[in-house]
Every structure is written in structure tokens, then in C-alpha cells.
Design brief:
57% helix
């Protein structure tokens, strides 16, 4: 597997934000553990990208990891590892923590 953090001369970094790298790492860890097959992941991600296209996503490449996150969330829900309510609660918690953290300090979820 190619090093996803390696950037060659003239190349853009593969991740625009830390959360993108974290989504990628989670998917890799789930595949490495055997909990999520690469074929299953490819099908899920492909379906999410297809649905995004139907919703009007112009597929300029800047929404790829948002599609990965959406596909991962759906898999987590379908595999009974979490539910929509729990995801919403964590999202709200992170938003509150982000808003209440002084600039330059690490954001921590209470």
C-alpha cells in the first residue's frame, strides 16, 4: 500500500484536514481487523458517491472524504455499532467543544 501521507514534488497532500486522515485510518483499521472487507467498503463508498451525484454533488474531488465519512457512518449503524442519535450527540458535543476551546488549544470532548 502506498504511504497516504507521502507527498511527492508537485503533488498536493492527500488530506486537507485531520478528520480526513482519521476517517481513512478508521476504514483501514476496520479492514485490517477483518471487520470490513475491502470489497464491501468499495461497494458502500461507490454507492455513497453515486447518491451524492444524484443529490447534485459536482464531484470535484473536494467532497471525497465527506462521502467516506457518510459511508462509514452508515456501515456503523447497519452493523449495530452505533445509531443516528448517538452520532448526532457526539457531533453536537464536538461542535460545543470546538466553539468553547480557546484558539491554539487542543479540542477535547468532555
Amino acid at each position: 500500500m502506498r504511504n497516504p501521507t507521502a507527498v511527492g514534488k508537485g503533488e498536493e497532500p492527500p488530506f486537507r484536514a485531520p478528520w480526513e486522515a482519521q476517517v481513512f485510518a478508521l476504514v483501514c483499521a476496520l479492514q485490517d481487523s477483518g471487520e470490513l472487507s475491502s470489497g464491501g467498503w468499495s461497494a458502500r463508498l461507490g454507492e455513497e458517491i453515486r447518491l451524492a451525484g444524484l443529490r447534485g454533488d459536482p464531484d470535484l474531488g473536494d467532497t471525497y472524504y465527506a462521502h467516506c465519512l457518510a459511508a462509514l457512518e452508515k456501515w456503523l449503524i447497519e452493523s449495530n455499532r452505533t445509531n443516528r442519535e448517538e452520532i448526532s450527540q457526539y457531533l453536537a458535543g464536538w461542535r460545543d467543544a470546538y466553539r468553547n476551546t480557546p484558539h491554539g488549544q487542543p479540542v477535547e470532548l468532555a
